[in-house]
Amino acid sequence: MSTTFALGPSFLWYRTRTYNDFANFTSTGTGLAIDATWNLQMMYSISRGIAVGIRGTASYQLGIRSDFDDIKGHDGLGLEWMASFNISDQSAAYLGAQLVVSYTLP
What we know:
Blueprint: E1 2-20, E2 23-45, E3 50-68, E4 71-74, E5 80-83, E6 92-103
Antiparallel strand pairs: 1-2, 2-3, 3-6, 4-5
């Protein structure tokens, strides 16, 4: 049985899209978050070099900042329009499990 804990930054990249008058407009953005992850792994040796097990993961991402480029365009009358994007809360939790097979070289 083993466990790990990790804490560190995430540098995020976003791609946004909006639709206007039969055309897709895209923009990009960036963000910053802090991630915390905890893993718990239990392995069982079935031979000298092979082990199988399960790994559980719990992660949380706390969004700190996001910044998007605005999309600007003109309508059929020549009037200018602008689409702005904002993520009010980019925090998320994740729980997962994985089956693990490990082989050790002799």
